[in-house]
Amino acid sequence: MANQSTSPLQKTYFSPNRLYDGSNTTGGLLSSIASSNANPQSNSSNSQPPNTSATPNSTTETATPIAPESAQSELPHRRRKRLKEESNSAQPEQSLPLDASTQLSNISAALPTTSLRRKFAAYLALTKPRLSFLVVLTTTSAYGMYPISSLLALDPAMTPLPTLSTSTLTLIYLTVGTFLSCCSANTLNMMAEPKYDALMSRTRNRPLVRGLVSHRGAMLFAIGTAVIGLGLLYIGTNPTTTALSAANIALYAFVYTPLKRIHVINTWIGAIVGGIPPLMGWIAAQNQVATTGHDTWRDMLFSEESIGGWLLGGILFAWQFPHFNALSHLIRDEYKGAGYRMLAWVNPAMNTRVALRYSVLMFPMSIGLWWIGVVGHGFLVGSTVANCWLVREAYRFWQHQGAQGTARGLFWASIWQLPILLVGGLVTKKGLWDGVWRNIFGQPEEEDDEEYLYYEDEEEDLGTNSKSQDSSVPSANRSNTLSTA
């Protein structure tokens, strides 16, 4: 009786996950059981009388096929790591959450046809509420960040607490006028491309695509919001701010929108559209505190006082690229299918480089606001932290070319980084906390020194007058002496 040699122990025998120790070709326990159950006849055809002298080890050797040498040499923890990486690479990019327009369209479609709420939700969906709110936030933040006049800052009797630059009424006109202007621009944008919006999952539920609003109704809504919005800006702010808002409507609806299907430069045009609202808010505040009385567009746009507005506009211009390039990467296939010329699919490598480049550009412009005295030292620290976070995510986005979740990470970093800069600029506004300090603890020592100097000047003037009077007395006596002589 032949003595069969016992096969050497396999490494997979000691794996803690032996029931899942490989695929169908690695010789795991499940794969061997499945193969034996799948071919019962092949086993029976080649069956021989049982060898009573065979050891249990020999039975196991014939039942379990020997795995390939490469699979045997793979350690369990490396195999688990490889399977995890393969599963992650096979998973598609997570879809973005529904935008506000889609959510409002779904709400409108679920309501009765004659319901006023249905019409209100449908028309509100035309405005892209989240985008319009962001534009209003950037405009009003720039308005509030305008430097406080030195006269108001030094004399607490004229203003108890320097919060906003100017009147609340001007702020209301600016806010409502800017929002209505955004509503008009977004509605015109939707009217220009409903058949292309229907090709993308992100935009296929917009009200014009679903027929919740007629084309005529959308046109009347766009004209009405434009007229009212620009009218409020003209009455409550100044002609320069109104002209910038009108130019933004035209640029977004009639230049950026058609360029999306022609050339990738559309992203830069869209960034200009995003950079104009902060300049509008700055000029609205600048006009209110102007001491010269001029209201020409040159005075508003190209004076030393307008540098802060240009820096804020530059921050919003640069911010568009990491935000939109990350967003477009997540839906690049849909942009390509709809015929939109976006860097995300036309030139993916350039798409990531541009996002990183403009993220780095946020540093000098944020420092510039501190350098010219718009904000204090706190903004310098806070903006540096926020910008470092954005640059880190942009670098990972460039390094991995948008893979491994880096596009989504950059998108959410940009969502949070911008409010940190805007709110931080308002909180650390130059002179804001000086007014709070004066109201709590009284006048600072510097004003006492100025008051002392003021009294000293008065004493000098009195001394000069007394000397002139004393000098006039001898001359009078001299004249009297001469007359008596």
TrEMBL record:
Membrane spanning residue stretches: 131-149, 169-192, 213-235, 241-259, 266-285, 307-326, 368-390, 410-428
One Pfam family hit: UbiA
Subcellular location: Mitochondrion membrane
Function in brief: Converts protoheme IX and farnesyl diphosphate to heme O.
Bias kind Low complexity: ranges: 31-66
Protein name: Protoheme IX farnesyltransferase, mitochondrial
Recorded topology in the membrane: Multi-pass membrane protein
Gene Ontology molecular functions: protoheme IX farnesyltransferase activity
Record-linked InterPro entries: Protohaem_IX_farnesylTrfase, Protohaem_IX_farnesylTrfase_mt, UbiA_prenyltransferase, UbiA_prenylTrfase_CS, UbiA_sf
Keywords, alphabetical: Heme biosynthesis, Membrane, Mitochondrion, Transferase, Transit peptide, Transmembrane, Transmembrane helix
Taxonomic path: Eukaryota, Fungi, Dikarya, Ascomycota, Pezizomycotina
Keyword Membrane: yes
GO biological process, any: heme A biosynthetic process
Enzyme class, first EC level, given as a word: transferase
Domain of life, source organism: Eukaryota
The EC number(s) this enzyme carries: 2.5.1.-
GO cellular component, one term: mitochondrial membrane
Gene3D superfamilies tied to this protein: UbiA prenyltransferase
